[in-house]
Design goal:
Helix content: under 10%
Shape: elongated
Distance between the termini: 31 Å
Number of strands: 7
Strand content: 25-35%
Radius of gyration: 23 Å
Mean pLDDT: 76
């Protein structure tokens, strides 16, 4: 099945749920919750595109796209222009219909349509620490790091030269 882009029809309004990161919580012996982030992706981002005053041709584009994507089964892309300049998804993000969209015939061959979609995989949560013009020193292997206490943990460099501090955390 070919991934087809959602029709380029700019909605009159957008409702969105920013989703949730994949975090597990563990609580034991009254020390408070400890949270583990499982990956860098926000899941369950959902969007509702609300259209008012669509003509017959525009409604047919939506109907055909829904049918071509087997209703709620298939994935598709959405042009970022539909988000009105919001940088809340990637160009390559994939979506699915969460339900069959609703249409209301308002007379004079005009329609009000509400389309609900969900990001299959949403934005990635990456934070970049910029060290400025500093150059990276040679890497040193560390065999163990001991964390004591409850989250969140704070990395303390104990007054070391900030230009030589490097921290790379990778859960993969």
């Amino acid at each position: 099945m070919t991934i087809s882009p959602f029709p380029t029809l700019i909605p009159n309004s957008i409702s969105l749920n920013h989703g949730t990161p994949r975090v597990n919580e563990y609580e034991s012996f009254g020390i408070g919750p400890i949270r583990f982030k499982r990956n860098n992706v926000v899941n369950n981002q959902s969007f509702t595109f609300n259209y008012r005053g669509l003509d017959q041709t525009s409604v047919e584009l939506l109907r055909n796209h829904y049918e071509d994507n087997s209703g709620i089964a298939a994935q598709f892309t959405v042009p970022t222009s539909l988000f009105g300049g919001l940088t809340i998804v990637f160009d390559s993000s994939l979506f699915r219909y969460t339900d069959t969209f609703t249409e209301e015939h308002t007379g004079q061959q005009l329609y009000t349509v509400s389309v609900e979609i969900q990001a299959v995989e949403g934005i990635e949560l990456f934070f970049t620490l910029n060290g400025g013009p500093a150059t990276l020193p040679a890497e040193t292997e560390v065999s163990r790091i001991v964390f004591v206490g409850t989250a969140p943990f704070i990395l303390n460099g104990n007054g070391s030269d900030a230009s030589q501090a490097t921290l790379a955390l990778n859960a993969d």
